[in-house]
């Protein structure tokens, strides 16, 4: 074999190795810059045994994005229109059949819809004859979004 042929084979081998190395580096670089797939959804609707109302579990980012805020249920003044509890009217949501509900925060980033009986709406508060116990945190900002999540309704429909 001539020395020119051997040198050309050697150069070709180096170029092939360099090309493979460059392709590998690009593949690794591309993998490093590609967004990681989201492993969990922002909200999970979790069935609750013995109940037709599911529990909603949100990621902390979803809670922040929705701006969810809560306020504790207060005791109604004695003799106030038959009410025992008071919640902000902003915490009241209505189901498709017109029934009244509120979302109660049951744990960190976890919410559950609870039926309420409204006796009177006075300004920005709702007086309740039945509902969550005094002190329970009810959602005052973000309830419509929680209801949409529960019923799988997107804001774009």
Highlighted features:
single chain; 157 residues; conserved putative lor/sdh protein from methanococcus maripaludis s2 fold; 2 domains; 4-stranded antiparallel β-sheet; 3 helices
What does this structure look like?
The chain is an alpha+beta fold. It has two domains: 1-37; 43-150, Beta Barrel (conserved putative lor/sdh protein from methanococcus maripaludis s2 fold), CATH 2.40.420. It contains three helices and eleven strands; from the N terminus they run αββαβββββββββα. The strands form three sheets. A five-stranded antiparallel sheet has the order 1-2-8-7-6. It has a four-stranded antiparallel sheet with strand order 4-5-10-9, with no helix packed on it. The longest helix is centred in the first third of the chain and has 31 residues, at 3-33. The chain is globular, with a radius of gyration of 29 Å.
Low-confidence segments: 2-34
Structural Rg: 29 Å
CATH class of the largest domain: Mainly Beta
Q: Main β-sheet, in a few words?
A: 5 strands, antiparallel
Assess the beta-strand content as a share of residues: 25-35%
Number of strands: 11
Structural class: alpha+beta
Count of individual domains: 2
Query: Helical proportion?
Result: 25-40%
Average pLDDT number: 81
Which topology of the largest domain does CATH recognise?
A: conserved putative lor/sdh protein from methanococcus maripaludis s2 fold
Q: Output the number of helix runs.
A: 3
Going by CATH, the architecture of the largest domain would be Beta Barrel
Describe the global form. globular
